Amino acid sequence: MERLTFDYPATAPVPKRAHVGVVGSGNLEVLIEPSPDGRARVVVSTSVDGYGAVWKAVLDRFFERHAVAAAVEINDFGATPGMVALRLEQAVEATRS
Questions:
Q1: The domain that contains 47 carries what CATH number?
Q2: Which range is the signal sequence, renumbered to this chain (predicted)?
Q3: Which of 13, 14, 49, 77 is the most exposed place for a label (fewest CB within 10 A)?
């Protein structure tokens, strides 16, 4: 089990909390809530060790497009980078609905 933390500058606060996805069967869940300090902080708990560079690449790409000020918790059970990107998009959308 590995725990990774990433911080990003942000400009757009998320209006409310949201939860998308489930942990299990190669999937992941994303919990997102408004940031307490106006920045983006992502904490990843993953069952797959040694993929910090892949996580960083996926998250860098996401936060280049969405500069959301949010506290994000990701609980991963071996999801692919594409699934991670999809769940992040879903989480941001869920905070707006």
A1: 3.30.230
A2: none
A3: 49
